[in-house]
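Consider the following assembly input.
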Amino acid sequence: MRESLIALLIRLFPRDFRERYAADMRDLLRDQLDAARRGPAAFGAARVWMSTLAGLPGAAFRAHRDALFPQLTSVDRTRRSLGLEQTMNDLRFAVRLLRKSPVFAVVAILAISLGAGAVTTIFSAMNAMVLRPVPGVADGSRVVGLEFRRRDGKDELTGMYPTYAFLRDHSHTTSGVAAWARATLSIAATGRDAARVVKGSYTSGNYFSVLGVRPALGRFFLPDEDRTPLANPVIVVSYDFWATTLGADSSAIGKPLSVNGNPYTLIGVAPEGFRGLITLLPLDGWIPIMMQGQIQPERKLESATWLRMFARLRDGGTAEAATAELSTLFTEQNQAPSANRANRVVSIHVSPLRAVPEDARKMFLGFMAILFVAATFVLFIASVDVAAMLSARAVARRREMAVRAALGASRARLITQLLTEILVLFGIGAAGAIAIAYGATTWATRFPLPAEIIVPPDLVPDGRVMAFALLVSLATGVVFGLTPALRASRDDVSARLRDGTTGAGMRRSRIGNALIVGQLALSLVLLVAAGLFVRALGRAASVPPGFERSGVTVVSFDTRTWGYNDVAGQRFYHALRDRVAALPGVTAVTFASFAPLTTRSLNDSVTYASGERAFTWYVAAGNDYFRTLEMPVIAGRALGADDNERAAPVAVVNETFAKRLAPNGGALGRTFMRGKQAVTVVGVARDAKYATFDEATPSMMFLPIDQVWQPTQTMMVRGLSPAQLARGLHDAMRAIDSKLPVPSLMTLDDASGINVLPQRIALIVTGVLGGVGLLLSTLGLYGVIAYSVNQRTRELGVRLALGAQRATLLGMVLADGLRLAAVGVVVGLAAAAGATRVIAEFLFDVSALDAVTFIGTALLLVIVALLATYVPARRAARLDPMSALRSE
Amino acid sequence: MPRDARDFLPLKPVDLQLLLALSEEERHGYGLVQEIAARTDGLVNLDAGNLYRVIKRLADDGLVAESDHRAAPDLGNERRRYYRLTALGGRVLGAELHRLRDLLGSPAVRAASRRFAT
């Protein structure tokens, strides 16, 4: 955390400075910390942290200044430009002014920070997942991904090995075609017992050279290491893996590592930050494609369509030329006699290599675009607040401006001065925004997610994000600050000097009112969205799944990653079942291809008795599956331990399946065809939800897991929480094979949380944004009403003196505020009705115009508006008429 | 063309301290911070950011340079970069010390230090 904060602050320095000194600065800090910890002083380390953290931003600023104005450094220090001098004066004056009105400064800076921070946070996430270039890749714009266009116009991202080899050997428009595919690797330093299961990749010999990535240590693959199947068991690991699992030991190069139970040699370490090409899939290990047969013998190297490919364009070569050449080569190869059977793919297209595949990118960008728009609402709301405050200040400072103008300051000079003040304010706000984005993204990476979701390694803001925050803040500063600045500088000098008042008779402008209404309306839209997500989550939680979700712990295994063959895998699962079942507190344990309600499904072709053929969902389920999940079997029997590979094929089916098989009842004992195999129905289970909360109940069959072998299985245990099971599971696995890594455990509730993950994220984002928006627009409303009460002090005093009741005054001001709130609510409801259509698909069955949400949110807004107006209204009612009349 | 050492005068206090610390021996970052803090009784305590900013400025002006020297391997910190005084840096330091000696020797300074002695 603190290290990354230092890294963040170091990014503030100019690039050439960083490149030269970043490592030295970290070393120095480390030395100081070491010394402080050994030293006698209390909190010595904390003091070093504080002084470093406090010193870095200022030093960074000065380093930028040194770089921009070298004439201000040691040599020629006397030659300063007048313009700079003036700017510095303006800056100093602006800072002094802000210090003189701390409440204004703090509120304004806070508002800007919140608004710009919201936008920056979302941008930061988008940046990390989509925009950021792949780190470590040289001249990335020349690296292109290959897509295989099918006859039907769709693109596939993977191709066959022979295609890769042919393109690699014959392409001239590119300087290299490389290929890779995802692999799950279980890596252990030999001699140490625990293996680490990581995401890895089968990699062509030229993978790293085509990318232009250089090793941090050792070397990468040689082209010859990827020519002969199973000949070169060598591995490259990520810097992160080397630093954490291998203890950053540089002598590890050349030493053996165990990969999925096989001996490999570690030949190199990838540079820090390089984790493969897909941000959402950070890799830790790379092995040659030719080793694939050892890790995944069931996949045929030559005939499977499994490799992603990319290429580097030659200097001067274009994507069009590459597309044309690769397509021609592809056609040529697939007509040659030695080529594989005809393929549906008709041409190859190249496009810039992206960190997120095209299909996922569109969906993700759509989702993020919604959040981004929501964040800009908050920025707008905050900006309006600040603009209102600046306006009020501008009015109060008219006299000062007039004096300056009278003393000879040009209008341009005055505007520059005012703009400097605004930019200082918004510049500090930008720093706050970056801090907020930093905090929010750091928190987001710790957000507990189901294991299936891959978290991007680094959401935290980089230079691009900081530049964005600064740009957004300064741009809003200019847009929302310029109007008051212009107005303040436009005044007639002599009139203003004669007039002693600070702008009596200033009334709330129509634009001001419109902005307040806009603020309230936008907050309402955000809150309605948040409310709808709350309702959707409630709906999802209240859907009865048809089994008992709570009280079950799930753990997933993949015996292949341990180098186990099918026999060893099955032996492991059986042994583990027996050991876990014997643990005290366990009431039932079972294995299945996956846990229910985790969005996963398998299907297979089934021929029903009527001759109807359809793809039908199935789950591979072990002994005690129904007892563990408390899913009722309403006829026949459940699956048992005797339903193994030697017994006749059987299935338990759900009611929907049973009706389809035998519409008039009596499905029990009937057979149906699964592929070419006759399967007998031995039980009927009650219909339930299987993959998602909002699915229509499908036909479902439960097949004995020993009859449809799966190397990947999920254990489900009823009776023990993950924490209670952890120790026993650890011991059980160690007793079976001491080298096995213990996977992570979670409750079935958490595992099925993946179903509602978009809703939960959206709820958090819209909820936080809606809350902040409400706070800021309330502040705006309060400010406007308080200001108008202030301006009308005299009028109110006269009214009181003439006998107006205090309650009447109270009501008058309250009505003033409520009128604005009411218009805001009406506009907001209309806008929300339009806007929620965008999120309708995320709401399960809740209507996008859900009355409860709309009415409730509107009420909330009115109540908050009342509270905001009440404070100034009470002040108006408590006015002392005499002093009010005297007041000017 | 060698620049005139006097172009750099007067030196900023921190620049003077840094050049002084390097005049005895080549040092790395932490060594410099320690030496300067000790020499000024802790008055000048540089943080990482400001130390390297000053180093960069002095390096750009040609007063200090990176050294080829590396720590003994048994200290395990062969990565540390060491800095040394350049010939120009030495001349500037000499000129500044000369200037300060003249200053301290001037009648005005002697009179002032007698009057305001603590």
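The interface with chain B takes residues 9, 13, 17, 20-21, 23-29, 31-32, 35, 51-52, 54-60, 62-63, 66, 70, 73-76 of chain A (CB under 8 Å). Ask yourself how this observation constrains the way the partners meet.
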